[in-house]
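Researcher: Go.
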Amino acid sequence: MMIHKDPLVIAALASALLGIVFLVATLRSLKKKRPVSPALHFVTALLMICLFALFGTISIATRGYIALTTETLAATVEIEPMEKQRFTARFHMPDGEKKSFVLAGDQLYVDAHILKWKPMANFLGLHTLYELDRVAGRYARLEQETSRERTVYALSRDKSLDLFDLRHRFAALAFLVDAEYGSATFITADKPLTLKILVSTTGLLIRKKTS
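Model: Structure:
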């Protein structure tokens, strides 16, 4: 049987197990009519259940994000110009998924969400996370950016919970999440190119792929 290696899932399961243990201990103490033990066991059980809910929620909310430790390849992109200020961008993700977009503009633009954890979370084995968020065509001239056709598409996957959004809604998560920010990069796309979209702890960057 495969053991799940996600530290948040392990922490959630451990908390749930301890919660059950202390609930059973509460019932046993009540049967033996001990004056202090039932209350102590019950409070501890509630604490474990709260931790289970917290770790479980964060685990679900970080699905789709990828752990970032150094410089990581987020995608390989093939650029194919079609006509003036229009090109195709074909994304090849590390997991094998492929996406293709027809973009208007002079440049390829990509942005991402990046989440950094505080030392307490690092102790649980959590590292900086990232998720590519959007791809767009970008015009080199500002006046065209405001007047020409705009093409923007999602690169992220739909999720029932997203830690990036939860951090903004609930201040209680501040003790785990150190910083959450967006990073973007762009490059001229006027000729056929193969590019590497990379993520480092300082943000996104693009390099031309050489043979």
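Model: Residues 7-61 form one domain.
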